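Q: Joint fold for the lines below.
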Amino acid sequence: MTRRCIDLGERGLVGRITEILEIGERDDCALAEDGERYLVWTTDMLHRRADFPGIATPWQIGWMTVAVNLSDVAAMGAVPLGLLVAAGIPPQTEVSFVEEIFRGMKGCASRFGTRVLGGDIDSHDELTLVGTALGRVEKELVLRRMGAVPGDLLCTSGTLGSAGAGLRVALAAEEGGEGIGDPGLRALTRRLLEPSPRVREGRALALSRSVTSMMDNSDGLALSLFDLSEASGVGFLVREDEIPVDPLVGRVAEDDDDALDLALTAGGDFELVFTVRPERIDEARQACELTVIGEVLEERVMVIESDAEIRALEPRGYQHMMRL
Amino acid sequence: MTRRCIDLGERGLVGRITEILEIGERDDCALAEDGERYLVWTTDMLHRRADFPGIATPWQIGWMTVAVNLSDVAAMGAVPLGLLVAAGIPPQTEVSFVEEIFRGMKGCASRFGTRVLGGDIDSHDELTLVGTALGRVEKELVLRRMGAVPGDLLCTSGTLGSAGAGLRVALAAEEGGEGIGDPGLRALTRRLLEPSPRVREGRALALSRSVTSMMDNSDGLALSLFDLSEASGVGFLVREDEIPVDPLVGRVAEDDDDALDLALTAGGDFELVFTVRPERIDEARQACELTVIGEVLEERVMVIESDAEIRALEPRGYQHMMRL
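A: Joint structure:
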């Protein structure tokens, strides 16, 4: 029987490819040796229909392209050195639209202390933007997905769910063909379309020497925890009541369960999820505004606790290939 | 009036973008500081319809994706450190087809002493492969597009025109719906679909300290010379009779003029074009099999000489955006 990619799903396909390429540990970035440091680098493909809601401005499209890559560099505790961008552009696109995309890229790179250094332009049926970010981190400071130890505290930066809520607002606005008048709802779409990669926080956490494992939560908190679990060979207990759901999410969610679901599975928040040695939690707090949302378990189970009830955490989240 | 990308052309659009991003010198790779060395890195977007003839096997598609990026690293005189690949894959693609692509990537990377270290998988309407290559070169050895000095010898590695001739063979085979029985014609398509980036040669030329400027000729020799001319602020005299047209090109070309045209403008050969200080031409020859095809002029003119007749060299070659 012929097996097609859609049957395998994104994560299944990635598994086959990493086997062919003999890639060992998977992290947010690939690592290359550089004396006492690692070069870390990452690439991310975004395209018009799947990744950018209709209401996204070209400037926001550019910003996102840079932001998602810087988030991966941040997740390694690295300092970004620069970015490249390969852009596939429909030939009939207005030049001013393309210029705005690149101004958005420049804006995001510059906001986080780095630059777009070059790239490639090509024609394409669908607008396709592939960013690549390069960073550098001392070997003794690098933060990886593996390293979590039972008893460590499970933490997240920032608040969760607002990007997922922002996507609902964006899709509703597209359908209705109307602008978004309400400032709170507009703020949610900005969380989606102008994410702030945690570059400063990731670096500060690395320097704090308190973190044992880390990644970004681009596909949602739940899937990230499954990735950390696999890399570290541990389990997680998440305390539902401690999850820092963004207060604005309530404006969009149907109820508390729905809000929690957005925070756990919607993705796009580009926060850091990481584990901290309990005796160094103060150092971690000085490095980054964080919330302790659970702990690392020796047994490889994934559970979520609320009102003394414990249930299994489901591996749901954003998977590109399966969306189609 | 609304200006569209197709009106501006690839090179026009790249000009606008490099202005926005404040990119100064343009080279085959972007440069990042690394103490006494530079990190060099490059990205290239390829897609099914525009870049891979129908007869290309998935293995060849993978090989090409890696080869075009390694060629840019070679053109800087750098040692490759690794590659990343972002792949946009139609969800209905057979898994075995994708696996073959990645085996081809691995084959090419490994053939030139490096590895694919990671990447990103996404679904896309059209198969789209974006490679990124990273390399490293000592600052005192780096070879750039600027640096050619009047009186320098203009050189090329290898032979030219076979990739362009191979494309004709491939397109004819596609139209006829037949295989390619003739070994000579098959060899031409392999030059097109399995190019050999000049990684060893580029590095040896850098170490020879004989080269003053260099780039690869991916868009064809003529356009490459215009790029070198602009970067170095010099002109070129090319001697038509010295251009090393691949002998197999005669099997496909209509006449000698057509064969020359393929060698000058068809692109895809992935040879190195470079300038050498006359007193060090022997060192350059030891580093790389080369042909002296002309010389660097003080005046910024681009001319080609045959039978004592001198005419202008036209800036024709492969430009993606203008092809559609």
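Q: Anything notable?
A: The mean pLDDT of chain A is 93. The longest helix of chain A spans residues 58-74.
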